[in-house]
## 1
Amino acid sequence: MDYVATLQAQLHAMALGFVAQLPNLAFALIAILVTWIAARFAVRIADLLVARTDLRPSLKELLDTLVRVAIWTAGLLFAAMLVMPGLTPASLLAGLGIGAVAIGFAFQDIFENFLAGVLIMARRKMQIGDLVECEGITGRVEHITLRETHVRALSNELTIVPNAVLFKNPVRIVTDEERRRYELVVGVSYDADLDRTAEVLRRAVEKVASVDQARGVEIYATTFGPSAIDFLVRWWAGSTPRAGFESRDRVVRAVRRALADARIEIPYPQMTHSFREPVQVQVRTGEKD
C-alpha cells in the first residue's frame, strides 16, 4: 500500500475542499463585518434612547452589553451557517440551549446575584449614599454593581455584600427621607405632677434647635415602672447618623436641665422588700475583745 500516495490524495482533496469553501468563507467574513457595524450602530441608538431616561449608569452599561451580545450572537450564527451549510437554526439553538443549561447550573450563584443586581437597580429605591441595615450589616451605600453592593460602615470598614442578600432579606433604609422620628424614655418620681411634668418636657424639647417644630413634639405617660413613671418623648430631626446623635444629645441635656429647674426628680432604681412573717433583727451594741 502506497501511504505517500494516499496522503497526497487526502491533502489534494482537502485543498480542493478549502478552495470550494472560499466563497462561503468570504461571505462569512462579510457577515461578521456587517455584524460589527450593526452592533456599533445599535449600541449608539440604545444610548440615545436611554439618555432620555434616568436609568443608573450600571443599567445603561448592561443594556449596551445585552444589545451587543444579541447582535453578535445572531451574526456569528449566520456566519456559521454560511461556512457549514449543513447547519440549521434549529440545531444551533438546541446546542446553545443545552450549553446555557449547563452554564446555568455551574454558575447559579453568580447568575442569582446578577439578576438581583438588575432588579435592585431597576426599582431605584436604594440610592448611593443611603444608610442601610440588613442582616446585621449597617453602613452607607458606596457603589452598586451588577453582582455586589459596597457598604461602608460608620466606623469606615467596607463590606462587600452579594446582591442576592439584599434582594432576599428585608433592608431598612434609614435615610430614605430627610427627617425621621426619635424616641426617648424619661422616668420621673411618683410624687411628680404628671400634667406639669408633661408640659415641662414639651417646652424643653421644643426649645432644641435641631427638633423639627413643624411635626411637633409628642409626650406620653406610658408605664408604671418599678421606681418611676415613664414618659415617652417623641420628636423629629435629621435622618443622618450625625444628626440623630446630635439631636438626641441636645434633647437629653435639655430634659435633664428642665426637670432639675422644675425640681422634678428623676429617681434612682429602688426596690421594696415585703416579708410575710416578722423578721428578727439583732442589734449589736458592742463586741467583746
## 2
Amino acid sequence: MRPNHHQFIAFSYVVREGSFSAAARRLGVTQSTVTQHVSKLEELVGSELLLRSRDGVSLTPTGRDFFGLADRLVALDSEIGERLQGYSSLNEGRLKVIANAPQPALQVIAAFNDRFPNVHIDFRLCDWTTANQLIRDRVADVGLITDAPERDDWDRVFLQKSRYVLYCRFDHPLAARKIVGLEDLVDQTIILPENGSLTQRVVRQKLKEQRIALPQLITMTTFPVMCEAVRQGLGAAIFLKNSSGIYDDLVEIPVRDFQQEHQTWLVAPKDRARLKLIREFRTAALAIAIK
C-alpha cells in the first residue's frame, strides 16, 4: 500500500510546528488524527521518522530523507488550493519568517501586516548559521539573510547592502573618532553576536588576517541585547549598519578594515516562493528596499 498525501502533510506539519498538538491546531483536526497519519506513514516506510520527547520532536535520518519530499507536497497542495480558491484576498494564513538581524525584517513584517492583518506571522531572530539551516531544512517559509548563499533550490531577492561599523556610547574613549581600525580596539571591551553569526565569522577572519587579538571580548545572543549592553557602558559593539534600531545616544563609527559591503537577501525554497503569501511578502520587502 502506498502512503497518501494526508499522511505526508501531517508529517510535514508536525516537523514545521514542532509537535503533534501544534500540527493538529494548524491543520484543524484532532491530535489523534495527526498521530494516526504519522504512525501509518512510519509503518508503510518501515522506519521511525520522528523521535518523540517532552521537548517536542526531531527527525531521524530516515525522517530527514522524507521531510523534503513531504514539505514539497505541502507547498504544491497549498498552490493548488490557492488556484482553486481564485487567489483569495489572504484573509487567513500563516507565515514562518526567520532573519539573522532585526532590520529590515521587522520593517517588512510591519508593512506586510498593514496589508494582511489576519495572516499570522511567526518570526524568529537567530544567528546566521541557524537562519540558513532553517531555510535549507524547509522549517521556515522565508528568510531575510545577510550574504545568503546562492543555491539552485532557493529563490533569492536582493534587498539592501551595508558595512560593519562600531557602536559606542557618547562618552566612550573612541566616540570622538571619525574612523577606527581594529588595532584601536585592542585595549577596549568589544561586544559581538553569538557564535554562528556572520559577524563572528567576518570579524574573526579579519583579526586572523591582520594577526590582531582582542582580549576583551563579550558575546551576546541578540542585537537588542548588544545595543542595551553598549548603552549600559559594557563596551563597544560591532555589527552591520542599519541591522537594528540604534538609540540616539549611541555613536556610529566606520571601521576602516571593514570596507566590504554585505548584501541582505530575501530567500525562500523555490517551490514555496510561488505561493501567494510569500509573493506578497516579497512585494512588501521590495517596497521597503526601494525606500
## 3
Amino acid sequence: MNFRTQQAANKRKTIGLLMGMGVLVWLVVFAAMTYFGNSTAGIVPIAVGIALISVWGSYYGADKLVLTMTGAKLIQESDNPKLFNLVHEVTIASGLPMPKVAIVVDSAPNAFATGRNPEHALIAFTTGILETMDRDQLQGVIAHEMAHIENRDTLVSAVAATTAGAIAILSDMLTRMMWFGGGRDRDRNGGNPIALVFSLLILILAPLAAMLLRSAISRKRESLADATAVAFTRNPAGLRSALEVLAADSTVVHQKSTSVAHIWIESPLDGKSVSKLFSTHPPIAERIAVLKAMESLN
C-alpha cells in the first residue's frame, strides 16, 4: 500500500469515526428524552456550551498552552542552525509556512507539533531526540510533525474532544437528575420499561464509548501523519528508522500527563499495560511495518 492509499484510507476512517461521535450524541439526547421526557432538551445546549468553552479556549491558545505544560522553550535559528536547516527543507517540501521551533530539555527522544493553524504552528524536540537521531531520521520526525500541521490535527482533536466532553457532561448531568427526582417524572408519565432500561444503559455507557472513539480518531491521525510525512520526503526509510530508535528506547518524557500525551510522536502513556482500544497511538511496531511496506514499493 503506497502513501496516497494510506492517506485516503485514514481520512475516510477519521470521517467515519467523527460521524460515529455525532451518532453517539444523538443517541444520548434520544435516551435522555426517552427516560426523562422533553423537559431535558434544554440541558443539551448547556452541556455543549460548557464543552465548547473548555476545549476551544485551549484550542485557540494551543501553542502557548502546550509550551507551558511541556516546559518547551522557543529557540532562534542561531541557536541550532542544523535543526532549522532541516525544518526549512521539510517546510519547502510541504508548502507550509515556517513553524516556530522549541526545545524540551529531556533525555527521552520525542517530539510534538501543535498550533491552531499553519500560521500559528509550533514544532518541539526533546534534547534526547536531537542527540540520538541522525539527519535522515530527524527529517522523518520533522515531516511527521509537519504532517500534523498540514492535516489540521489540532482542529480534529479539538472537535473530537468537544464532542466527547459534551457527551460526558450531558451524561453526568442526566445521571444526577436520575438520582434527584428524574425518576418520579418518569413514573408519572409511564413508558416502555425495555426502552427505559435501554436508555439508561446508553446514558451510562456513552462516555466510555466517546472515549474509545476519541482514541480511535487519534490513532488514525497518527497513521495519516506517517503517510503524509512520506508524501513530503518520499523517503519512508527515514521515518521508519526514527520509529525503530523510539521503539528501542525505554526512557519516557517527564511531561506525560493525559492532557499532552497524545501530541508526542511516541505517546508516553501507551505502554503494554494500556489497552490498545484506549491508546492514542497505533502500536509502534505496526507503524514500522506499514513504512517498511512502503519502502518495498519504492
